[in-house]
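Researcher: We plan to redesign the surface later, but first we want a full-length starting point. Tokens attached.
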């Protein structure tokens, strides 16, 4: 094992068990020192005053502003976004550390309600921007280069023009947003509060899901049935959340004249529907040569006649069952980042040394992992639930990639830094690929190479095949909800219709697996987000192929792409690499990389 390259601050560390070492915790003081910090109160007071002043200064007047006056309005609006983003980042991150804490939940809800109330008078801004004539806006951009820098933001805002409602209705929907947020919080708090008993011991959902990667098949089976039991006990709540969230979306979409439930996501992602459908179709067509073929291999490795769902993420018999300490995980990822370019290592280092990562599994902590950009004048924070699995190392590499991307894009400012979701996964998946390739190059035996290849293929299948199956589930769920209220059995049936297709003939499905849709947070928090994972994986596979070919200046082009944030369309960002995601054949390149890895694994069996 390798040594720790950078110190973890003890003041921010949680003493880990099971050989994990000291796991870092967030230091949120860069946002605010506490929920009673005078700076936070001052920011809330400023927001209330500035939102009212902004409306008084500009409502009903945008079309008549000069280019310089319009720039002032844009910059003031951007400052409002930054201050409100800082407040909600602090409240949200603090809440995710302990979602079962009533005081933190109340604080987050109160902040959200205040900001919603303060910002309701600002709804006019995007509505009036969309009423400015194209010629007038083009002329203003030509007159003022500082204003022209915001053209991509205007373009994305104006893409919603056909779906814009009256000013009064837009304000009503803005105010109603806190109700939708309450359903999301109900989902989060329900999931975080669930307890599961496996082998006589209680675990939260993260600890229980972790059993599905346990080397002991009996433990995996016990955990799977316990997950099913607890999900089933709470299924009415989860079905109500999904029915309400999808119905709310259907109502808003109908009023906005959105042709499909997915349209809003495509618009916010700044991606054409036909590009997403080309990706979806390419992946579904590839199921037989990807997931079906790989799981048949895995069935043989595990010595099983039939695979059960609790075998999907089982470790391979030849894997080293030992856990990876936090120090070794950090060293592995940092070495890979530095080997690509020392600048990448420099950008990643503060995450480990300054309390920007919260890694430990703790009661009440939100499950999963994410990188939150906060605001451009602070820095991102990464959340993990680190249990020392090899996949946890890849998750660290993934989320750290997001963090590096967010740091680089911050110079674009609040309105231009946010990358559309389809490209937001680029740096994260690329960070995973760098880490994987570094580990593969260091493999000393055929067996080690096989384990690494199988692990990567499995991760890619989870990222591409599983996420597109999730996307199909959501498409079917939202379409069905437009016709009728859905019973839990209805939702279960939709879930199973995509699972069997994506996983293949190697699997049997236990009774109770039909409820496993219940714990996926993206379905509630970010409808149709999931295809961004597959988009990012396919894009990175193509991007990495360009890097592997030794293209001159790749590193500089890569950093330029990340620095661009949301200031460019995906066609502009990929052009320097000679790539075009709008070409239907583009996706076949990425899928072929996965297929070629399975080819190599099959060849090892001969």
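Model: Full-length starting sequence:
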């Amino acid at each position: 094992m390798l040594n720790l390259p950078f110190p973890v601050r003890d003041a921010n560390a949680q003493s880990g068990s099971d050989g994990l070492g000291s796991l870092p915790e967030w230091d949120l003081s860069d946002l605010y020192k506490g929920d009673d910090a005078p700076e936070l109160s001052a920011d809330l007071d400023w927001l209330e005053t500035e939102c009212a002043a902004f409306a008084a200064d500009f409502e009903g007047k945008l079309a008549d502003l000069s280019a310089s006056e319009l720039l002032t309005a844009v910059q003031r609006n951007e400052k409002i976004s930054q201050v409100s983003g800082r407040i909600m980042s602090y409240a949200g991150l603090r809440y995710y550390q302990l979602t079962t804490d009533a005081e933190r939940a109340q604080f987050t809800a109160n902040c959200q309600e205040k900001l919603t109330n303060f910002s309701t008078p600002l709804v006019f801004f995007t509505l009036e921007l969309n009423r400015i004539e194209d010629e007038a806006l083009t002329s203003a951009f030509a007159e003022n280069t500082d204003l022209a820098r915001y053209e991509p933001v205007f373009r994305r805002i104006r893409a919603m023009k056909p779906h814009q409602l009256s000013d009064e209705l837009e304000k009503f929907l803005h105010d109603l947003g806190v109700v939708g947020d309450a359903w999301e919080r109900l989902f989060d708090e329900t999931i975080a509060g669930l307890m599961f008993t496996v082998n006589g011991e209680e675990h939260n959902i993260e600890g229980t899901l972790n059993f599905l990667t346990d080397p002991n098949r009996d433990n995996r089976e016990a955990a799977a049935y316990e997950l099913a039991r607890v999900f089933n006990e709470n299924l009415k709540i989860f079905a109500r959340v999904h029915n309400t969230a999808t119905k709310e979306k259907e109502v808003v979409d109908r009023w906005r004249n959105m042709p499909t439930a997915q349209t809003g996501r495509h618009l916010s992602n700044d991606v054409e529907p036909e590009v997403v459908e080309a990706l979806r179709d390419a992946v579904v067509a590839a199921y037989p040569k990807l997931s079906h073929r790989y799981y048949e291999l895995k069935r043989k490795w595990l010595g099983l006649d039939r695979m059960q769902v609790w075998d999907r993420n089982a470790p391979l018999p030849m894997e080293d069952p030992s856990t990876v300490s936090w120090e070794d995980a950090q060293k592995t990822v940092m070495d890979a980042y530095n080997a690509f370019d020392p600048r990448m290592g420099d950008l990643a280092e503060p995450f480990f040394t300054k309390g920007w990562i919260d890694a430990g599994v703790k009661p009440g902590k939100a499950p999963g992992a994410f990188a939150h950009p906060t605001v451009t004048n602070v820095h991102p924070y990464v959340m993990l639930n680190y249990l020392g699995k090899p996949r946890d190392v890849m998750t660290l590499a993934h989320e750290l990639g997001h963090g590096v991307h967010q740091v680089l894009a911050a110079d674009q400012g609040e309105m231009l830094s946010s990358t559309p979701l389809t490209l937001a996964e680029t740096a994260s998946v690329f960070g995973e690929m760098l880490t994987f390739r570094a580990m593969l190059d260091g493999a000393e035996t055929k067996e080690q190479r096989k384990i690494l290849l199988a692990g990567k293929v499995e991760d890619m299948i989870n990222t591409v095949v599983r996420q597109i199956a999730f996307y199909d589930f959501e498409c079917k769920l939202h379409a069905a909800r437009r016709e009728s209220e859905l019973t839990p059995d209805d939702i279960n049936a939709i879930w199973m219709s995509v699972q069997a297709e994506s996983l293949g003939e190697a699997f049997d499905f236990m009774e109770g697996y039909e409820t496993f849709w219940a714990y996926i947070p993206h379905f509630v928090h970010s409808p149709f987000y999931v295809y961004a994972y597959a988009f990012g994986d396919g894009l990175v596979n193509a991007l990495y192929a360009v890097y592997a070919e030794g293209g001159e200046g790749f590193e500089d082009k890569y950093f330029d792409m990340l620095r661009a944030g949301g200031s460019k369309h995906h066609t502009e960002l990929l052009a320097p690499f000679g790539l075009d995601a709008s070409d239907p054949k583009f996706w076949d390149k990425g899928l072929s990389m996965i297929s070629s890895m399975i080819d190599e694994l099959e060849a090892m069996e001969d």
